[in-house]
Structure formats: structure tokens, C-alpha cells
Write a structure and sequence with these properties.
single chain; 385 residues; alpha+beta; Cytochrome-c3 Hydrogenase, chain B; 4-stranded antiparallel β-sheet; 3-stranded mixed β-sheet; 7 strands; 49% helix; Nickel-dependent hydrogenase large subunit
Length: 385
């Protein structure tokens, strides 16, 4: 998302237990810059505005514009764009694993591996679209299949080496927790080190709550809610049918056999969350088909609305055109669902307890990292008298 703004998370605690959680965001409404612009101008601005999940943001903007303009479908080009979205998910997951997970293990991040990851990622667009322009109204397919397959093999090999220490295939083959224990035994891979630490510190169920995964959203009803004049009613603090939901890799991958088994023991706690991220990082390069793609766009009277699965969850763009220019533009990012004041992170944080304030802080940092705000956050712990 945009670099400006942050999320403040305040934990009020007493006797080692969290008594209350307050989550507030100062993130700006980035979509306001699109008002008065043409669709072509919007699509030129999006890459400059969004540094994280840029492909997902650009694809959502493109599809919303195309729907509002009633342009015909582009099945082959959209298949290539979905390919880019899923590769971006791999990059985002691997980037966070390589940069953040070592800190949770009191290690230094592998910046060489991060640089190699980003170098590979930058080359994919030029393998699929002319001049690497994938998200324009006039983008032209230009597929270099041999080069694309070569890059995919290079990406898979890098992830296997730096995250799984050669054990990627074994990780993907697991279907239950017993097999996971066998895979972790004596394993020095970064992924294994983190999961072993969860077991050692008995953090596998940390943050478990009864917040469910976001169901499929009816496009017409979603459009009705998003066009409300009160932005805070949905776009800033979304709920569906009066309930908070989570939209994360865990909710997206919860049907996998391994996660089904883990969730039966630990709900939506830390262990299933981290495993879900690892599953996507490992599985997507193997088949580029493990995620749900874009939902059918909603179009009516100059309105275009689209739902896209980004790395951290569901991304929604809605725009309204009048006389060829944007009259209204609204975005709901995964952060709005997951960091809702009463959402999955807030409910998980309320369950924390530790021997002292530092222990609470450490637990909270693990949980926040697992849910992943995708923007800077500030954690404040306030003791209650």
C-alpha cells in the first residue's frame, strides 16, 4: 500500500493479561488522487502510488476500468495477468519470510537472497507482455514461454534453497501434523527453524479466535455497500452481514489437508498461519494455480467493481465514471478486514497472556507479523492500575 500513514495497536494489560485492544489507522485514502482522472491516467498513476502488491493493485484498477467502460473480456491476456498476480504473491511471501522471520529468530536477514528474489521477479512482465506493460487498456500479449519457464524454475530453486533448504517437495507432500513433526526433526531450514520455535515456546495456538474466513462476496451487494456516502461504514472498517471476517493466506488455503489437520488442533493460531504462507510460497511456482483468482467484475451505469486476491488477502476496487473521468474511486485492502478494530488481529490479541510486559510485547509482535499489516505499525503497551 502507500508508504504514508501507520497502524497504531495499543494493548491495555493487567497482571500479564490483555484487558483491551485498540487499533487505529492513519493511512490516507489513496484513491482520492484518481478523482477527475481518465482511466488511462488512473492506470499510469497506480504503479507510482502502490509499492507493495503493485501488480494486484494495477490489475484491480485495470479490471474496474474495463468493467466501467464495458470493454470486452481478454481471456488470454487476463490469464497472463493472473500468472503475474500469483508470482507476486510468491515474491511478497518470500520477501517477508527472508526479511522478517530471521528477526523473530534473533538472526540477521539474508539480504543477498532478497536481492536475488527481486531480480528474478522484475523480469517476468517482459516475458508476457510487449514492453512489459501488463496493466494498460491497450496492453499487448508477447509471450516468451522458454524464458518464462526458465525464470519460474530459477524462482522455485531459490525458494527451495533459502527457505526450505532443499526440502520444498517434502513440505508440499505433507497432509497431517505427524508428518510435519517428522519434517521438522533435525531440519535447519529457515522455515523449519521458525516452526520449531513455535513448538518449543508452545505458541502454536497463539492468537486463536472465532473470527472466520471471509466468504465469497456477492458483487451487487458489495457494490451497494461500497457506494455508501459514509466511507468509514465499509471502506475503512468493513464488515459483511454484520460480522468481522479475516482475509489472509490462511483463510485462502484452509481447505488444504495439512491446514485442515492443524486447524482442528490450533484454530487460526500462529502455527496454521505461518504454514499457510509457506504453502503458498512453495506451491504457487509448482503450478501457478493454487489461489482463487479474480471474481467476475460488476458493471452498471459507468460503475466498475472488481475483487482480486492479493498476497495478503482480498483487494477490492470500485470506480464510477462520469463523462469519461473518475467521479468516485474506492479501495478496500486486506488490511481493512484483518486490522479492523474488532477483527481477527484484535480478537487474537485479546487472548494473550504472559509473565511480564516484555513477554506480551513479544507475543503481540509474533501475531502481528503473522497477520501482516503490509504497512508500518506502532505497538503500545499500557498497564492498567
Amino acid at each position: 500500500m502507500t508508504p504514508a500513514g501507520e497502524i497504531t495497536i495499543e494493548l491495555n494489560h493487567r497482571a500479564g493479561k490483555v484487558e483491551a485492544v485498540e487499533i487505529a489507522s492513519t493511512r490516507p485514502d489513496a484513491a482520492r488522487v484518481f478523482v477527475g482522472k481518465t482511466p488511462e491516467q488512473v492506470l499510469s498513476i497506480v504503479p507510482l502510488l502502490f509499492s507493495l502488491c503493485g501488480n494486484a493493485q494495477a490489475y484491480a484498477a485495470l479490471q474496474a476500468c474495463r468493467a466501467a467502460l464495458r470493454m470486452p473480456a481478454e481471456p488470454e491476456a487476463d490469464a497472463a495477468r493472473e500468472h503475474l498476480l500469483q508470482l507476486e504473491t510468491v515474491r511478497e511471501h518470500a520477501w517477508r519470510i527472508l526479511l522478517d522471520w530471521p528477526g523473530l529468530l534473533d538472526q540477521q536477514p539474508d539480504k543477498t537472497a532478497v536481492a536475488a528474489l527481486l531480480k528474478i521477479d522484475r523480469q517476468f512482465k517482459s516475458c508476457l507482455f510487449q514492453d512489459g506493460e501488463a496493466f494498460k487498456l491497450d496492453s499487448q500479449l508477447q509471450i516468451d514461454a522458454p524464458r518464462s519457464q526458465g525464470l519460474l524454475a530459477e524462482l522455485t530453486g531459490l525458494i527451495d534453497q533459502v527457505i526450505f533448504d532443499g526440502g520444498l517437495r517434502g513440505f508440499l507432500a505433507m497432509t497431517n501434523e505427524m508428518q510435519l513433526h517428522d519434517w521438522l526433526d533435525g531440519n535447519k531450514a529457515l522455515a523449519a527453524q521458525l516452526l520449531n520455535k513455535l513448538y518449543q515456546r508452545e505458541l502454536h495456538a497463539l492468537g486463536n479466535s472465532n473470527v472466520a474466513g471471509l466468504p465469497n462476496l456477492d458483487p451487487a451487494e458489495l457494490n451497494r455497500q461500497m457506494q455508501s456516502t459514509d466511507l468509514s461504514a465499509f471502506c475503512r472498517m468493513p464488515q459483511w452481514q454484520g460480522r468481522c471476517y479475516e482475509s489472509t493466506p490462511l483463510s485462502r488455503q484452509q481447505e488444504s489437508p495439512l491446514l485442515t489437520d492443524l486447524r482442528s488442533h490450533y484454530g487460526n493460531g500462529l502455527l496454521p498461519r505461518f504454514v499457510a504462507v509457506l504453502l503458498e510460497a512453495a506451491a504457487i511456482p509448482q503450478g501457478i494455480k493454487s489461489m482463487v483468482g479474480t471474481m467476475p467484475a460488476y458493471a452498471a451505469d459507468g460503475v466498475g467493481l472488481v475483487q482480486v486476491q492479493a498476497a495478503r488477502g482480498l483487494l477490492i476496487h470500485r470506480l464510477e465514471l462520469r463523462q469519461g473521468r473518475v467521479y468516485d474511486y474506492r479501495i478496500v485492502a486486506p488490511t481493512e478486514w484483518n486490522f479492523h478494530p474488532n477483527g481477527v488481529l484484535a480478537q487474537g490479541l485479546k487472548s494473550l497472556q504472559a509473565d511480564d510486559e516484555e513477554g506480551l510485547r513479544r507475543q503481540a509482535e509474533w501475531l502481528i507479523n503473522a497477520v501482516d499489516p503490509c504497512v508500518q505499525y506502532r505497538l503500545v503497551l499500557t498497564p492498567e492500575n
